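Predict structure. Chain length: 64.
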Amino acid sequence: MAAWAAVIIMLVAFAVGTIAFCFDYPVVVWIAAGFEVVGLIVGQVLKRMGYGVGGSRYASKVHE
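Prediction complete.
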């Protein structure tokens, strides 16, 4: 779950930053770059809380 949360945040930030770059909104591009860092931090925090692979709150799915 930690990886999914981080990837989704960073993917949205990248998309918004790319669109803002095309329309020449440098402030929005830098805000999106900031959210890329936020995505990394969220991923690390969730991993340390046990939501990463192998963590105490990680629920593995069994494929039958």
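Summary: The helical segments are 2-22, 26-51.
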